[in-house]
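Title: Comparing notes on inverse folding

I've been comparing how different people in this forum approach sequence design from structure. To keep things fair, I'm posting one structure and asking everyone to reply with a full sequence. Here's the target:
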């Protein structure tokens, strides 16, 4: 009998993660997967040790799983934030990212999460974007990356990177469109009432 277990989307949490980098995509993906379970996906949050994580601006959030006990992810979403800076030199974390690259069908990032991907070597030779304030650092970490600073998100097949903070919402809606169709993404966007109208 074929398995009916949902495919897993894992959002990575770590101390210093930018709140909206993680929670914005969570809102999109959790609304989608809970409202439309028949699409066959589930989303959860994971951190190295599991448990509580303090975000960049002081919000405390709870991971569902540790890296060790998390279900195998089909999609990995790595947010950014000031907490990415130590991760660029954390070989244990970079090895974990490389391991996910070997098993996950799709690696995605928000904001400076792409810096971690660059440090792990998985953006080699690819187009990518990041927060506008970290564009130069992305190029410094891996000069082979074709940095696209003006893109809201960059879809390069099995790797998707997005620009800073709120751009993660757009990337997550794009992810829904890829995995479940454009009409589903429109339903999710309406469900979360996301229709940005910038004041300037």
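Reply #1:
Here's my take.
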């Amino acid at each position: 009998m074929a398995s009916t277990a949902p495919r897993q989307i894992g959002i990575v949490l770590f101390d210093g993660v930018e709140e909206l980098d993680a929670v914005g995509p969570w809102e999109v993906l959790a609304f989608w997967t809970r409202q439309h379970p028949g699409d066959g996906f589930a989303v959860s949050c994971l951190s190295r040790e599991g448990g509580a994580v303090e975000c960049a601006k002081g919000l405390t959030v709870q991971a569902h799983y540790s890296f060790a006990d998390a279900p195998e992810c089909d999609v990995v979403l790595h947010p950014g934030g000031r907490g990415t800076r130590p991760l660029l030199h954390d070989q244990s974390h970079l090895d974990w990212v490389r391991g996910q690259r070997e098993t996950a069908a799709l690696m995605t990032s928000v904001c400076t999460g792409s810096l971690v991907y660059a440090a792990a070597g998985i953006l080699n030779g690819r187009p990518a974007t990041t927060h506008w304030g970290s564009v130069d650092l992305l190029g410094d970490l891996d000069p082979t990356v074709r940095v696209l600073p003006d893109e809201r998100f960059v879809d390069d097949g099995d790797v998707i990177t997005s620009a800073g903070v709120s751009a993660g919402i757009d990337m997550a809606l794009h992810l829904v469109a890829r995995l479940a169709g454009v009409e589903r993404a429109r339903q999710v966007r309406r469900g979360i009432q996301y229709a940005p109208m910038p004041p300037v």
